[in-house]
Write a structure and sequence with these properties.
This protein is α/β, with parallel strands linked by helices. The chain contains eight helices and 17 strands. The chain folds into two domains: 177 residues, Quinone Oxidoreductase, Chain A, domain 1, CATH 3.90.180.10; 117 residues, NAD(P)-binding Rossmann-like Domain (Rossmann fold, 3-Layer(aba) Sandwich). It is globular and about 55 Å long.
Length: 321
């Protein structure tokens, strides 16, 4: 199969499409035939060596939408085998082997990990069964592939902040971005008073997500109970938190030091199929929306990275095998 990897760190020119063996699922894992996989800023960071892994072949890609192609089954003596045969009903039951997943099921998943031999930018990917959720019914695979990483990051960041509904104010930086946009929508749905910090020209969009206030220049004397810093502003965003409030960033270990009693931290997204299924439901109900900027063939992955590096992308770039 074809897979997108980096063998040495650098710019878009470091991105390679290689031929490699199709991975086999182990116990409590499933293999997904990839229909679409989005490109995220974290992939550019992996490519540049931000997360380490020098000297290793590193597979790119965290998000995936596709079809379950095989499940890892445990036989009578405990050996792991990949089950991929389709029965007369058109599906192989994966109960007891990989949760409730069956061959032929349309799914989405988050394949967590910055340094891994294969990512989702490939024709097939193996993920843990509990990282998988049913695919949305209301959007195609290209749009579905943009949901897992960004929506899970937003939801898990809000969990860390735990602002009390009706009693707390929340500032979301980068409110027009993928993570920030989901955070605004999810927080507004909880009844939280959200202010979105976004560039001029994005105000109407951020308001449509449910922000009560939108600004392109948050003033220093406005004190919020909590800040979700999706734009990775760091200390400037921390300055907008009231004494004793909370600050959450989106890059682990990159948050600013605590001042004025403000609790600081950063969300490290985790694969959570059950939570992802909730977000899929919200997407199907129209609460959440997806945005696709452009699609690229898998072999044009380097071009997609170059476009990402140019900046100004509204929505996600998506690779299609």
């Amino acid at each position: 199969m074809r897979a997108v990897v980096v063998n040495s760190f650098g710019g878009p020119e470091a991105v390679e499409v290689v031929e490699t063996e199709v991975p086999r699922p182990g116990a409590r894992q499933v293999r997904i035939k990839v229909a679409a996989a989005s490109l995220n800023p974290v992939d550019a960071g992996v490519r540049a060596g931000v997360f380490g892994g020098a000297g290793e072949r590193i597979g790119l890609g965290w998000d995936v939408a596709g079809t379950v192609d095989a499940v890892g089954a445990v036989d009578a003596v405990g050996a792991v085998d990949a089950v991929g045969a389709v029965d007369a009903a058109g599906a192989v039951d994966a109960a007891g082997a990989a949760g409730a997943w069956s061959v032929g099921a349309e799914v989405v998943a988050l394949h967590y990990g910055a340094v891994k031999p294969l990512g989702t930018h490939a024709e097939y990917v193996v993920v843990d069964a509990d990282a998988v959720a049913p695919a949305p019914a209301t959007v195609d695979a290209v749009h579905a592939a943009t949901l897992p990483l960004n929506a899970l990051t937003a939801a898990q960041a809000l969990d860390r902040l735990e602002p009390a509904v009706g009693r707390s104010s929340l500032l979301v930086t980068g409110a027009a971005g993928a993570v920030g946009g989901y955070a605004v929508r999810l927080a507004a749905r909880r009844g939280i008073a959200v202010t979105g910090l976004a560039r001029e020209g994005d105000e109407e969009f951020v308001r449509s997500l449910g922000a009560r206030h939108v600004t392109s220049d948050a003033v220093a004397d406005r004190e919020f109970d909590a800040v979700l810093d999706a734009a990775v502003l760091g200390e400037p965003a921390l300055a907008w938190v009231r004494d004793g409030g909370r600050y959450i960033g989106v890059i682990p270990h990159a948050e600013p030091a605590s001042v004025r009693g403000v609790e600081t931290g950063a969300v490290e997204v985790s694969a959570d199929g059950a939570r992802l299924a909730e977000l899929v439901r919200l997407l199907d109900e129209g609460v959440l929306t997806t945005r696709v900027a452009e699609t690229y063939a898998l072999e044009d992955a380097a071009k997609a990275h170059a476009r990402l590096d140019e900046g100004g992308v509204r929505g996600r770039l998506v690779l299609v095998p």
